[in-house]
């Protein structure tokens, strides 16, 4: 992909006559670039002022398979065309496609007769069908075909005018028949039309191009201004002219198969002519016109359909090559993803341009020392002997070429990428010697001593001597893998590389939609083999669950009950009774789900059955038949006796759907009895009046018999839900036990039916949603483990890692994703550290980014098919989802078990699940299991082999200087290799050719601390959200916090090896401040401090050194980190106050003020950078400008001071006194409601009032999170109103 883009940049930016090495910056800057603009349009309406019925509506009445027309393909393309262009264009497409197919079929019947072939059908390909034309030997024409032919003849005047050549649309096409998208296109064409106008409209699909080209010239507003034609690819077309002559097919029917080469050439030739000469001035083209065809420069280029890839963006824009050209992007209002993609293309274009320049001419701007190859302006001619001694170095795998001319620039570029702090000069290569040069590379490069200094061969000029030694160094460094096979030190991709750190190609994800439509593993099917699963509640077998899959045994705790399920037998029915038996089971299950769960009838066939059992755990068909025969129960109370009190379920016909248990029969009372004083019925004269008032509805009258006794009934708890908690998230059982007495009431006996559903089966139905959800989760987790080859991770953790936020459950994969992100960061860091021992921190950082980026995670997830195992279904109390999908063949589902179901969810869910799976593996089996899981997932971790076996340490220990004995005691760790401790405390300013600085170890230690802190938070705060965990981790691992630990816990400022006066002075100045900082203040107020980065770096490097020294024993290293950071970890909490900037924004939003902004400024003009921040409220400076060591600190201090002033009612700048936003907003709303603002095309910044208000509103909306208990209660509380049933 990168090579293709480089070739593309060459086409666009570089004239063919200029060699790449002579490409000047001036030429690149002054190459014509069009004005780019965005035109938005409204979504297509549902209805148009158009023909009724339309052609499509009429034709679909005769939609029969035996006609020989591919209706499904026509329907898909019809709707695409209608949504894009409008109903007339869609019917135009249908007319010519069906007309061509009908004529073809009539010819096959050999009786074409008077059916004249119109010019529109003389296209190179008629219908877009996969199967060959059907040859029917029957002599008679199908009636449906004749009807279709007649309909086409009736609509002929609207879509065909054979009197013209080439044929055109016969009538004007009003904009009322077109979509808002076409209307917007028309407005753009009118706005940019000139007498010499030439333009191209790029679309995605061929039929859209053909229809739009026909319609545009017939729009009254464009008549006499536009002459256009379509230009599409060859497709299945021919390469020669058709028999009709050179122009016989030009602008012929709606061609969806493609254009032949001859038609393409004729169209391009006509486009080159002027409008006055009869030529075309507008093309409607697919991607075929993006490159390869010789067009005149266009004044206007329009992307009618969304951009999908960078190549299409650059190539189509390249058609607008004049200085006055305009490039228009059309986007539907509200489709932010399209605009975001376009903005992304704009942002990465300069980076790709740099990549191109790097590949074509990799010499970077040289350092001041090497800006001239001669010394002190001395000019030297290239000596012939030196030229003859030159050589070239070619990398076989890529063809990259190293020359004497590019070597010095590559060395300079490598050194420019070495990280350094503000106290350390930029690392530079040093050249010495005259005619035999010596090159000394910076000691901060992690290279062996013998590869830091190179001695070049003698040359006849000083300049050539430098080139020669630089050439020698680059060759050697390439062999050490410091330069890649493109002879560059880094791709500079920032996570957009096509390869991971191991050089493995990534899957192209450009075509993966934002919302994926996938088939997910699912156990709920029937099939030829059915299996019985016995459900037990608190040890009592209550019911049987039948489905076509053997479900894994499960155990869950819910509502204070223990529910288990086990598979017992495979069911075998007598062939003659199987159909009737399945029907009975299905009707019984539907009735139970309606009655106990959804409150709504189920119409689709079931994929599982819940049935009553006999004492031998066989299906109790007698109980099933009673329920099916009398689904609403019976009014016959003759069989009810006292032994049924407390167990018999009844149902009040006035409140159908509410389960109740018979408590007793009150023979002493009837509906005409007088209620006792103090009862809820006491305000009424009789029970009858109370019941009539309570049960009467607008649609029905209350049924209140007066000649029967009253009965006392108790309501059964009804809270069906698919939500449950994994074992790791169990709450105390008492929390869910119901301590209140059951709600009782008194009703007429004969107003109630005796329900045949037993209480045990009722309880099973109540828990059925949870059982099905748990069985689904277990099934997918175990299928994922088996099919992908994952290690034996804990079931509940793997389930949690595969559960998406779309389920709306109280738990999902976001916590594990946050933990897995830290696991991935560490495991990738360890791998690349050891794989590339000679690359410095800057190179390693970009390598790691290419391995852990979202793009890489998504590509690897798609490669292994992870999307098949994710759970995205939300749980609804009113929709039963365990059914055969609508439109499916029920017989086929009974004959063959299908273990997949169609689901939709965002594609970013895949990358989250990749990290969540790593987090689950880490919690189950530590780093070793995480490595096994990562290797299975295809991530760059170096394989599944444990670190202890992969990276061994030297058996002989080396001496640790006695001066570090106290430091080791404070750490609680004894170093095996003393040189690692020395390296860990060596600042880059102190390094010599004899040793390295701490930079690589600091890169490793940063990842270690990150994971240790995250694991601590994950285990300690089990109910914290992902955002809370991330915020707490950020406070713990930020520079000021780590610097305070380095000073107060280990005294590392006393051991740090530095050779820089400014850095030493800065450390001495900050140490007293840090020593007074308590752990609580470090967490809460650390943002106010800006200690030298070296203090936090040395702590991280020391941790990295412990990991390497311990032979990569993570648990031992984690123990050291937990000891060293114990004070911080003890006070760390997830309920942290917001930072001052966020606090000001949220507070301002709650106060209703929308006129606040930050303002940056310079305290010293000579600095040439902003270092001060002020807060402006209603155009008045409330706080600042405040100057600090960095802009972030300035902003935080200004926000803190502004909040204190604005919130002080006694201050003259109090917000109450200076703000009138609420009053002004009310006045505006009284006059005219304020329309919503669309900021999708603007970069939101807090330096404007609108931007500040927008960010503040977003933060305020994110601020409130309902308690978990409240969420659970809301999710589990059923809708009390059931669908009434006519009695």
Tell me what you see in this structure.
- The chain is α+β, with helices and mostly antiparallel strands and 1287 residues long.
- The strands form seven sheets. Strands 1-6-5-2-4-3 form a six-stranded parallel beta sheet, with helices on both faces. The chain has a five-stranded antiparallel beta sheet with strand order 15-16-13-14-17. The chain has a five-stranded antiparallel beta sheet with strand order 21-20-19-18-22, with no helix packed on it.
- α29 (999-1020) crosses α35 (1114-1124).
- The longest helix is centred in the middle third of the chain and has 30 residues, at 759-788.
- The chain is globular and about 120 Å long.
Show the helix and strand layout:
Layout: H1 2-13, H2 25-30, E1 35-41, H3 55-59, H4 71-84, H5 87-108, H6 143-154, H7 156-159, H8 180-192, E2 199-202, H9 206-216, E3 228-231, H10 261-272, E4 282-285, E5 300-303, H11 310-317, E6 326-332, H12 336-360, H13 384-389, E7 393-394, E8 401-402, H14 404-416, E9 430-432, E10 438-440, E11 453-455, H15 462-479, E12 515-521, E13 530-537, E14 540-547, E15 554-558, E16 561-571, H16 578-598, E17 609-611, H17 621-629, E18 649-652, E19 660-666, H18 687-695, E20 710-715, E21 744-748, E22 752-754, H19 759-788, H20 795-801, H21 814-835, H22 841-852, H23 854-864, H24 890-895, E23 900-906, H25 908-936, H26 947-950, H27 965-971, H28 978-984, H29 999-1020, H30 1026-1037, H31 1039-1048, H32 1061-1075, H33 1079-1085, H34 1093-1109, H35 1114-1124, H36 1126-1131, H37 1140-1151, E24 1156-1161, E25 1172-1177, E26 1180-1187, H38 1191-1206, H39 1215-1218, H40 1221-1231, H41 1249-1263, H42 1268-1276
Parallel strand pairs: 1-6, 2-4, 2-5, 3-4, 5-6
Antiparallel strand pairs: 7-8, 9-10, 10-11, 12-23, 13-14, 13-16, 14-17, 15-16, 18-19, 18-22, 19-20, 20-21, 24-25, 25-26
